[in-house]
Design goal:
The protein contains 15 helices and 27 strands. By secondary structure, it is an alpha+beta fold. The C terminus is likely disordered. The structure holds adenosine-5'-diphosphate and magnesium ion (MG).
């Protein structure tokens, strides 16, 4: 059973596994590595995931969901084909597809996965990611932070010495910066910073605005279809600049042919406001890490948007030297996850390669505010960016005379008032009735490497109560219900069990034949596979019908062959 590493991205997801001492990417039946993190519902057919769903984003916006990772851990719901789905369920569909693609690619069952999440993901987002994996039939012992995975990939490729890295992960909708220190076999995240609303989509939006400006159009004045067409053109043109120095943009809007030219200099200009925001994030993370830009050995470019030359140009100016590019920037996180999967598979766990992480947010409890008694304030226990694992113990005293009980409310966040933060849970414990300020309790927060928080509260009589947060898994009944739903999701034609069985028979014929017949079977396999992978309904049906017809023909041929071999007479007696 294989262990795979999965980069479950906002825009694209992909997986890697460990083979012969290195991470290898997993491809789908068409040879593609990236699976768009998009889910759609197709009338009379069911749920589709990936490229097929992405294509429907424009034409069937109401029945298609994208970028749901941004809403992981929230109450946001999507309605697709009349069915309500949470971001967790949609993520489960993406993971299910990845698991099946991997099983198909590796020809073995996938049981376990290492999944990456943004370093700033909170407890709810992390536990929803784990639940999504559980629904998708994957065991997840460990979630790792995306920048840790990127740093690991970087260490695998180029790092032996002690290094301070800044991981710059510029994706479709988000930018994440992480300050990482690497020494010996330890990879330690010192600080994280980022913007949840700054990514390739914003660049596309800026290009759309530029295009409209050049053509004297108001974006709002365009129909939904036209807006979608311009957005698509903007993304294509932006990506086109990776290989061409200039791209001509052209699209018909309201019966008029609209045009503009996009080149590096124009794009640089368009991106200026975004670059200003990025610069602010650099200042923020350097302050948090108590460092300066000259102390960074390498800046590692990660994410699809890091492919843009203008981004590289901006970072080079900011740093005063060239950033590091490790091959395809949108695959680095998955390669790191695959490397970590290798570590797990070899059972060496973190002894060999220690990944320490930081707590991306402050964890604390609500305490009474002297001046403002009806509003509790947050008393931090574990500060944002503290290195994990870590444990903290603090003593708190009662505020009411002869109070019999204390309720310890646990929060996460950076807000001053407790209630403005995310409420995680509550522990109630008896206290010895005494005048205010004399009875006490001790609260211990232990935050482990998997982002699981254990809170223990103890009173003067050494009575203890505990709570474990972010380690919720689904009940058997819930899991059963979700698994049933997953079975409804459409598989690509070539991965369907009946087509797999059929292809296996052709392969058997191939192995048992020689010469001209073998060539003919190879040709058949080729044609059937091409048809099944074509993505076009008619060709898929043709391939399936053709295959059945050929199989029948070959079976008949085989019968004739046997009759000839045994002169017809023996066959019956021999076989029955
Ligand atoms: P995420 O981590 O958000 O899932 P990715 O790292 O895959 O996403 O990045 C997706 C973004 O990268 C999209 O906005 C896409 O337009 C952009 N992108 C992909 N290829 C290129 C390219 N060649 N040039 C510029 N941008 C690109
Ligand atoms: Mg990503």
């Amino acid at each position: 059973m294989a262990v795979i590493g999965i980069d479950l991205g906002t825009t694209n997801s992909l997986a890697a596994y460990w083979k012969d001492g290195r991470a290898e990417l997993i491809r789908d039946e068409n040879g593609a590595v990236l699976l768009p993190s998009v889910v759609g519902y197709v009338e009379d057919e069911g749920f589709v995931v990936g490229e097929a769903a992405k294509e429907r984003l424009l034409t069937h916006a109401g029945d298609t969901a994208a970028s749901f990772k941004c809403f992981m851990g929230t109450a946001r719901e999507y309605t697709l084909g009349g069915k309500t789905c949470t971001p967790m369920e949609l993520s489960a569909m993406v993971l299910e597809r990845i698991r099946k693609n991997a099983a198909f690619y590796l020809q073995e069952e996938i049981e376990e996965a290492v999944i990456t999440v943004p370093a700033y993901f909170n407890d709810r987002q992390r536990s929803d990611t784990k639940k999504a994996a559980q629904i998708a039939g994957l065991k997840v012992e460990r979630l790792i932070n995306e920048p840790s995975a990127a740093a690991l990939a970087c260490r695998m490729q180029c790092g032996e010495e002690d290094q301070t890295l800044l991981v710059f992960d510029f994706g479709g909708g988000t930018l994440d910066l992480s300050y990482v220190e690497c020494f010996d076999n330890v990879i330690e995240i010192i600080a994280v910073a980022g913007d949840n609303h700054l990514g390739g989509d914003d660049i596309d939006r800026a290009v759309v605005q530029y295009f409209c400006r050049e053509n004297g159009l108001e974006e709002e004045g365009l129909s939904v279809g036209e807006q979608a067409a311009v957005r698509k053109l903007a993304e294509q043109s932006k990506c086109g600049l990776s290989t061409q120095s200039e791209v001509r943009m052209e699209v018909e809007l309201g019966g008029r042919l609209c045009r503009a030219v996009l080149n590096e200099d124009i794009l640089f200009e368009i991106c200026m406001p975004l670059f200003a925001k990025i610069k602010q994030l650099f200042i923020h993370i350097l302050e948090d890490a108590d460092s300066r830009i000259s102390q960074i050995d390498d800046l590692v470019m990660v994410g699809g948007s890091s492919k843009l030359q203008v981004v590289k140009r901006f970072l080079t100016e900011l740093l005063g030297k060239e950033p590091v590019v490790l091959g395809d920037t949108d695959r680095v996180v998955a390669m790191g996850a695959g490397a970590y999967a290798g570590i797990r598979q070899r059972g060496e766990e973190i002894r060999d390669m220690l990944l320490t992480d930081v707590c991306p947010f402050t964890l604390g409890i609500g305490v009474t505010n002297r001046n403002h008694r009806d509003k509790n304030i947050l008393s931090p226990m574990i500060e944002r960016n503290a290195t994990l694992p870590m444990s903290v113990r603090n003593r708190f005293v009662t505020t009411g005379d002869y109070q019999k009980e204390i309720s310890v409310k646990i929060y996460q966040g950076e807000e001053y008032y407790a209630d403005d933060n995310i409420f995680l849970g509550e522990v109630r414990i008896d206290v010895v009735p005494k005048p205010a300020g004399q009875a006490w309790i001790e609260v211990q927060f232990t935050y482990d490497i998997n982002g699981i928080l254990h809170v223990a509260v103890e009173n003067e009589l050494a009575q203890q109560k505990q709570i474990l947060l972010a380690n919720q898994t689904l009940s058997e009944a819930e899991l059963e219900r979700y698994r049933k739903e997953m079975e409804q999701i459409m598989l690509p034609p070539i991965q369907k069990p009946e087509n797999q069985r059929m292809l296996a028979r052709f392969i058997e014929y191939f192995e048992n034949s020689v010469g001209e017949r073998r060539e003919r079977v190879a040709e058949m396999i080729d044609q059937i596979t091409a048809g099944l992978c074509s993505g076009r309904k008619k060709e898929i049906r043709n391939a399936e019908e053709m295959a059945l017809h050929w199989l029948e023909q070959m079976e008949r041929e085989e019968d004739i062959q046997e009759i000839l071999l045994f002169d017809g007479a023996l066959k019956g007696d021999w076989l029955e």
